């Protein structure tokens, strides 16, 4: 274990020692911080083009903000329980305990860091057999120089259905280390979409995990379009048969932006279905990596798992690593993965130029069309239009 843990003067350790803030006490926070320092990120050498040291990414202790000034939740439907984590601890401890920290997020490096400073975030409880038409909106905006650790928890009872849309922004050199958990009972249907558009000086690190119940559906849809660094771990844990998960990811580093996305779908129960679609592009000196894991346990017969990852390089200095991975222990399954990395097809450009479309406009149209299959998997027309506008801005 690194010696950092045993140095009483370490600023993060000392900051933890002064915190009395729900949902965790100081001893639980210290244990989480110790896990952060002892765990590896799994990103020690993600590629020869990578220039950032994930093991050295730490926020200044003085920048840590648990006040929640830039965090709010809107559009909570009639019957939905939405509150901050502190209120959930005081007024709904039994409900919170069924979901908070139950998906293994805290056993990852940056999930442990988010847990150590957890306090900002929302608890969303969906009662049984209720469908909510309007999306629940979560807004997280980090001030310049601030370090925030939002942790959102969704608990859906049997047959409940809802859509959550989270928007993450950050100004200047903000630091965001967040987490989100979804836990459902049988036949629930939860969609959780994220649009991240922080400044190109910010660092955004997220850990998200879902545990759907029997015959339940969980959909993750994440667009990582901002930040100097955007690193995300997204996972689904199938412990019950009949469940389904859809995972959609969009990212587009430009200039000197770095994006690193890891998705893991763990089929630990049979007769479950997962479909992962990733669309990415990079321009200028943008760098990215996508690592897509599909794991099927030996007893998870009847699993159906599919992964598709397509990357588009828009300059000779941009780079994207695509690493799909299958680990299959059962013999009666359907499993597929495919990945492509390439530039815009010159024949497409020629065809469009021959019809009077200028080369720049043609490249822009092709790039925007490339993302469309993934954009269509995001909920609400407004969110889809926001993503299209953000991508068009990157191409301008």
Structural shape? globular
List the secondary-structure elements in sequence, H or E.
HHEEHHHEEEEEEEEEEEEEEEEEHHH
Low-confidence stretches: 1-9
Strand content is 35-45%
Number of domains: 1
Helix segment tally: 8
- Given helix and strand content, the structural type is alpha/beta
Query: What's the N-to-C terminus distance?
Result: 47 Å
Radius of gyration: 21 Å
Quaternary structure:
single chain
Biggest sheet details: 10 strands, mixed
Kindly state the number of beta strands: 19
Percent of residues in helices comes to: 10-25%
Overall average residue pLDDT? 90
Write the layout of secondary structure elements.
Layout: H1 11-17, H2 26-38, E1 71-74, E2 81-84, H3 85-91, H4 93-97, H5 109-116, E3 122-126, E4 136-142, E5 147-148, E6 151-156, E7 161-170, E8 175-184, E9 189-196, E10 203-211, E11 217-224, E12 229-238, E13 244-251, E14 258-267, E15 273-282, E16 287-296, E17 304-313, E18 319-328, E19 334-343, H6 346-353, H7 359-375, H8 381-395
Parallel strand pairs: 3-6, 4-7, 5-8, 6-8, 7-9, 8-10, 9-11, 10-12, 11-13, 12-14, 13-15, 14-16, 15-17, 16-18, 17-19
Antiparallel strand pairs: 1-4, 2-3
